[in-house]
Amino acid sequence: MFQYIKYIIGIILFLYLFSLININELLLTFKKITLIELISIIFISFLLLLLQAFRLHMLIYNYVSSYKETIKLSFVSQFFSNFLPGGVAGDFYKINFLRKNKLSVSSGIAKIGIDRFSGLVVLLIFSTFYFLFNSNWFIQNLSIEMNKVYWLLFFAILLPFIFFIFTNNFKDKIFKIYENIKIDLLKIEKTKLYAFVVLNIIVFIVRLLKFQLIFWVLNYDFNFFDLILVAFVSQIAGMLPISIGGLGVVEVSLVFGLSLFNVPEQTAFAFAILNRATIWIVSIVGGIYWFKFKSNIIFTEKNDSIN
Fold first, then answer.
1. Considering Cα of 87, then 69, then 206, then 129, what sign does the dihedral take?
2. What tens digit of pLDDT does each residue of 177-212 get?
């Protein structure tokens, strides 16, 4: 039941954002976007997912027939994450795929966890440096309403509490996954590890370039390095399991994050809509593949050693 409530939460948050802007002006803004500009945003969205697929492939190449199969896996899981109930539906699909390819569930979770958290680590490192170099600016220029600060503190306290309960109930399984993560990381050669780190940085930069491209399409001048904060706010918000694929939550976080830089609500919401639309377009490709070929999907069984 709660899974379906997530759809309602996302819709409510979207309606809230619509109440803040003039719909006619929003439509006028979208009409000014040319087809080439729209295609360019879609192209970089596909590029982003292909890079993420390559990052995943570096971890699971022993359990797929080719990079092409990893691409299919990434597109289908993207569809699951953005349209189906369950905050980690796409990750469960990946884990099930690996399980059918002779990899244990705990090892599958470990590999998907490394893929997930490696991107998060890069985000946190870039964000930390951003906050350190801009700390004085934040103190002097940002006037965040106290009720927003209270909400942020509430979630900052609540999430570790939920995590503690979860790990306490499943501590044996968590420990096993942790051991698998440690084994997987120790198995990675130094050269491949460096390549993996560089790839994570490239993925992060391409995400920022996508944001910058959307601003360019909207004819709004925005500082490229400030997009690090925008990426930080939206990605952390997207991790909250209260809507489908972060629907509504990510958009509210984007509008809020951009408001810190005095971006007009109209422009901020247009930015959020374009970002969501391109994510959905990429996800729908995975959905089409799933519905068209799901009866013929054959999981490749390899004879490689199992971790």
1. positive
2. 556 666 665 566 666 778 888 999 999 999 999 999
Q: For the chain, how many structural domains are there in total?
A: 1
Please report whether residue 26 resides in a domain. Answer: no
Quote the pTM value.
0.79
Tell me, yes or no, whether 98 lies in a domain: yes
Q: Which long-range contacts (CB under 8 A, 24 or more apart) does 80-84 make?
A: 80/286, 81/245, 81/283, 82/244, 82/245, 82/247, 82/279, 82/280, 82/283, 83/244, 83/245, 83/283, 83/287, 84/244
Quick one: how far is CA 46 from the chain centroid?
14
221-249, pLDDT tens digit by residue? 999 999 998 898 888 887 776 777 778 88
